[in-house]
């Protein structure tokens, strides 16, 4: 059984600053998103239960991807396929899904594709469904529990106000939610072994794609603006005795609907 796990490297949100309402990404280290790590953890747990299972990590990114993928291999992936062509840069969800689909077709022989429900930075939730459509696979999204029974998968979907149990035959694509598991920390022996695991790099030409199909040129959407919301402050100052200041503050907050009486 072969499981393909799709991952995305993103800036660590903890280190992102906002200046003039614009996010400043310079200096922010790159990490793999939380739900991507949930997808990897679930693949490794299946491997531990189903003998003969191989986990293949597929990721698209820049030069730093080669360093970051070591953590993925240390956490249980058996090999990795990296899409590192500069032409992939700034691909939207459509271009990303197209590149991933071509890479997975090139890998061949997969039974299950796992990905996060959405990336921590954009959280569009589109890559998984687009990928399933391109590969003509059944897809199950919002998965909080997953079981393998022979050639079938049984998943519990989180529908916010209810749970839904769904079955599908493999090959299939599953997009996991973060409550499905708690990703493990790699042990020292696993970190040492990671450097010996196979890593393959693919360019657009290897996938039969042109620069017009991915990146900015291949995008079907255009980002017009990316600004933090304005937070206008009224800057009301209360002066006088403490008792009067407190009373006036409570009255003002009540009038604004912040407090109720």
Provide an overview of this structure.
This protein is 27% helix and 27% strand. The protein is an alpha/beta fold. The protein has 2 domains: 2-207, Rossmann fold, CATH 3.40.50.620; 231-261. Strands 1, 4, 5, 6, 7, 8, 9, 10, 11 and 12 form a 10-stranded mixed beta sheet that branches. β2 and β3 (22-24) form a beta hairpin. α2 (65-74) crosses α5 and α3 (93-107) packs across α4. The mean pLDDT is 89.
In short:
By secondary structure, the protein is α/β, with parallel strands linked by helices. Helices cover 27% and strands 27% of the residues. The longest helix is centred in the first third of the chain and has 16 residues, at 34-49.
Write the layout of secondary structure elements.
Blueprint: E1 2-11, E2 17-19, E3 22-24, E4 30-32, H1 34-49, E5 54-60, H2 65-74, E6 79-83, H3 93-107, E7 112-116, H4 127-134, E8 139-149, E9 152-158, E10 163-169, E11 172-176, H5 188-194, E12 199-202, H6 242-255
Parallel strand pairs: 1-5, 1-7, 5-6, 6-12, 7-11, 8-11
Antiparallel strand pairs: 1-4, 2-3, 8-9, 9-10
- The tally of structural domains comes to 2
Number of separate strands:
12
CATH architecture tag of the largest domain: 3-Layer(aba) Sandwich
Overall geometry comes to: globular
How do the helices and strands follow one another from N- to C-terminus? EEEEHEHEHEHEEEEHEH
Query: What summary fits the major beta sheet?
Result: 10 strands, mixed
> Helix coverage percent of residues?
25-40%
Any idea what the CATH superfamily of the largest domain is called? HUPs
Name the average pLDDT.
Answer: 89
Number of separate helices: 6
First-residue to last-residue Cα separation: 63 Å
Within the CATH hierarchy, at the fold level, what is the topology of the largest domain?
Rossmann fold
Assess the beta-strand content as a share of residues.
Answer: 25-35%
Question: What is the CATH class of the largest domain?
Answer: Alpha Beta
The radius of gyration computed from the alpha-carbon positions, rounded to a whole number of angstroms, is: 23 Å
Which regions are unreliable across 5 or more consecutive residues at pLDDT < 50?
none
Which class do the helix and strand fractions yield?
A: alpha/beta
């Amino acid at each position: 059984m072969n499981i393909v796990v799709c991952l995305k490297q993103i800036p660590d949100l903890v280190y992102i600053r906002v200046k003039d309402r614009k996010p400043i990404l310079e200096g922010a280290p790159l990490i793999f998103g939380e739900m991507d790590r949930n997808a990897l953890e679930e693949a490794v747990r299946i491997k531990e239960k189903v003998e003969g299972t191989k986990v293949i990590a597929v990721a698209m990114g820049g030069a730093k991807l080669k360093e970051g993928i070591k953590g993925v291999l240390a956490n249980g992936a058996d090999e990795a396929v990296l899409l590192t062509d500069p032409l992939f840069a700034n691909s939207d969800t459509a271009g990303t899904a197209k590149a991933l689909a071509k890479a997975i077709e090139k890998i061949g022989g997969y039974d299950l594709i796992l990905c996060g429900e959405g990336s921590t930075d954009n959280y569009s939730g589109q890559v998984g469904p687009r990928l399933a459509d391109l590969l003509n696979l059944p897809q199950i999204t919002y998965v909080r529990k997953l079981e393998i029974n022979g050639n079938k998968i049984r998943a519990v979907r989180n529908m916010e106000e209810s749970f839904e149990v769904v079955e599908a035959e493999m090959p299939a694509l599953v997009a996991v939610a973060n409550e499905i598991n708690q990703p493990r920390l790699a042990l020292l022996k696993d970190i040492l072994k990671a450097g010996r695991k196979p890593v393959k790099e693919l360019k657009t030409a290897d996938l039969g794609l042109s620069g017009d199909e991915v990146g900015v040129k291949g995008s079907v959407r255009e980002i017009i603006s990316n600004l933090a919301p304005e937070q206008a402050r009224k800057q009301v100052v209360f002066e006088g005795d403490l008792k009067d200041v407190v009373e006036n503050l409570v009255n003002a907050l009540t009038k604004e609907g912040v407090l109720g009486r």
